[in-house]
């Protein structure tokens, strides 16, 4: 008989708290409401944001709104095969103004470097992150449940 080894999540409670705090930000709330089809921000992509917060090595007070969008962009880059979700993030943040994109990409590279270039998050890790606070409203953002 083989026992399945379960990995212990390296995500600390303070990373969940940072994420929860960001969910109260009016811009982030507006973004999540804007993504009705969950193409950019379903529950797994949002779980990856928390994993990235954990890996980035920042103090909880250092996280800003832009970190949420950078982490979500990286999650989409890792999981989605097309450019549309990432372009949707830019459209929401900057509209048609392209002048901020180079700065965004510079910050994205710094963020990924701070994570030790480790952007892979398993489904098991996402589910462990969601299990920390299973009643959190964003875990209901499941593409499989859309009509």
TrEMBL record:
A Pfam family: Spy1
InterPro entries associated with the record: Speedy, Speedy_E
Domain of life: Eukaryota
Similarity annotation: Belongs to the Speedy/Ringo family.
Full protein name: Speedy protein E4-like
